[in-house]
Automatic annotation (TrEMBL):
Pfam annotation, one family: HTH_Mga
Protein name listed in UniProt: DNA-binding protein
Keyword check for DNA-binding: yes
Lineage: Bacteria, Bacillati, Bacillota, Bacilli, Lactobacillales
Keywords of this entry: DNA-binding
Location of the M protein trans-acting positive regulator (MGA) HTH domain: 11-53
Length: 54
C-alpha cells in the first residue's frame, strides 16, 4: 500500500506538490504546477500557504 492511499485529497495534493518541488532542479512556474496537479490557482495557492505554515 502506498502512503498516498492513506491521505485525504488535500494532503495527497500537498504531498505530490512537495514531490514535484523536490524533483525539480530549477524553480517551477505556478502555471506548470497547476497543469501538473490539475488544481485551480486558488486551490494551489491555498495548499502552498498551508505547507508554509507547517
Amino acid at each position: 500500500m502506498k502512503i498516498e492511499e492513506l491521505m485525504d485529497k488535500e494532503r495527497k495534493a500537498q504531498y505530490r506538490l512537495l514531490q514535484a518541488l523536490y524533483a525539480s532542479k530549477n524553480s517551477l512556474l505556478l502555471k506548470d504546477l497547476m497543469k501538473q496537479s490539475h488544481l485551480s490557482k486558488v486551490t494551489l495557492l491555498k495548499y502552498i500557504d498551508n505547507l508554509n505554515h507547517l
